[in-house]
Amino acid sequence: MFDSLPLEIRSERQILPDPFTTAPTPEMLAARAHFSVPAGFVGRAAVMIENLGSHVLASFCLEQTASGMATSYRDLSEALLWPALQLDEVPNMNFINGHGQQGASRAILQTLLDEYPVKPYLQGGREIQWRKGQLCRAFAESMTDPAMRLLAEHNRNPKGALIGLGEWWCGASPAHEMRFDGTFYAPRACTKFLYAWLVDGVPHEEALPLVTEETIPHIPVLYEDRDVIVVNKPTRLSSVPGIRETISCMSVLERTKGQLFVVHRLDLDTSGVIAFARNTRALAALNEAFRSDLVMKRYVARLDGSVRADRGTITLPLSVNRLDRPRQCVLSESAGGKACATDYEVISRTSTCGRATTLVNLYPATGRTHQLRVHCAHAEGLGCPIDGDPFYSRLGLEGESADTRLCLHAAELTLPHPASGEILHIEAPQDFPDF
């Protein structure tokens, strides 16, 4: 079930970094280099690093993709990929957490199911029943996840301080996803329920906010009047406050500009031009402008690879990956995907030290989550992921470091002024680092 390999590496680490948000440690990268993946294997390989003092011990576990994986996203559907389960269909396995407390998988899952309210079937009960079925599916999937299996094994038989846990992808990408051979990606989001239970009592780091009071970046103001403010949002700063990222572009601006209202958002990792309304009348006018397609947005992205055509349109439909939110995947509209369209044009192509990159303009006609990132990365899109993308690129979680970033920038925003109707045209140049 598990393979182990001692590595002649001394480490000062004594605590587990968060496997969902932290770049793989040097020990994990060394372990990947020493591990031989079986020929023909396609799926997830997980590594766990335990510190034994004089050296570290690397343990490995594999999870193969489902047999008969489709060769085209058109052959897949939400129902085929994520069928619901009932509680009694979830395997009942015994687990031990870091405190030595035992728990059966169904009992752990039941505590999550009990959080749902009881409602009549036709008054919300049907939706709740569906959500419970999806939660059961997600929990069952987490039990087979190789990183969670390694964590469970550590709790049963610890050999040293747990200082590393993660997964990399092996082989070809599933047709509906974007994964690259040998790339570390975060464990699926569905594993977070089980991870939280297993890691309780294990010395570990929580997922920390990217921005604190001590690290608030400068936010350049590009345009400002009594109705609207437009700024150049830095990368790794959330547009609006969230559960983990309580400090955001909006909250920082409100400290000196007064109350602001959300008009649109940029992904946390995306930099560039973003507008906020300064009163409710301006908010209503700007919302109407977005609904009426009176707003033009241009993004600039640096892609890993050489885009073949100079210009074109990508129309891949997208669906949220129910087991790995917020990751998106490609599914046909008849199978649950939502229509999307992105126009692109190549700005330049370069090749440095044998690595080709392409700078492109992107014009989204729709605004789905991760639309530009998926349309660039998927094999039936541009087939060239955005540099530094922790979700969809060849860099994967290794992009979660201070020296890298998602090379996607909202470079231009054109919209009617909410009071006068005058066309505002605002630009901010990209400043992608070399890595």
N-to-C span:
37 Å
The CATH topology of the largest domain corresponds to Pseudouridine synthase
**Given this structure, which CATH class of the largest domain is correct?**
Alpha Beta
Average pLDDT value?
96
Number of helices: 9
Give the proportion of residues in helices: 10-25%
What's this entry about, in short?
The chain is of the alpha+beta class and about 425 residues long. Helices cover about 20% and strands about 25% of the residues.
Give a structural overview:
Helix 3 runs antiparallel to helix 4 (125-144) and helix 5 runs parallel beside helix 6. A hairpin with a 2-residue loop joins strand 16 (342-352) and strand 17. This protein has 435 residues and is of the alpha+beta class. It is built from 9 helices and 19 strands. Helices cover 20% and strands 26% of the residues. The strands form 4 sheets. Strands 8, 9, 10, 11, 12, 13, 16, 17, 18 and 19 form a 10-stranded mixed beta sheet that branches. The chain has a 5-stranded antiparallel beta sheet with strand order 1-3-2-6-7, with helices on both faces. The protein is globular. The protein folds into 2 domains: 3-199, no CATH class; 221-427, Pseudouridine synthase (2-Layer Sandwich). It has helices at 26-34, 78-81, 105-113, 125-144, 146-156, 192-199, 249-257, 280-291, 371-377; strands spanning 3-7, 43-51, 56-64, 94-96, 102-104, 161-170, 184-185, 221-224, 228-233, 261-262, 271-277, 296-304, 311-314, 318-320, 328-330, 342-352, 355-364, 408-416, 423-427. The mean pLDDT is 96.
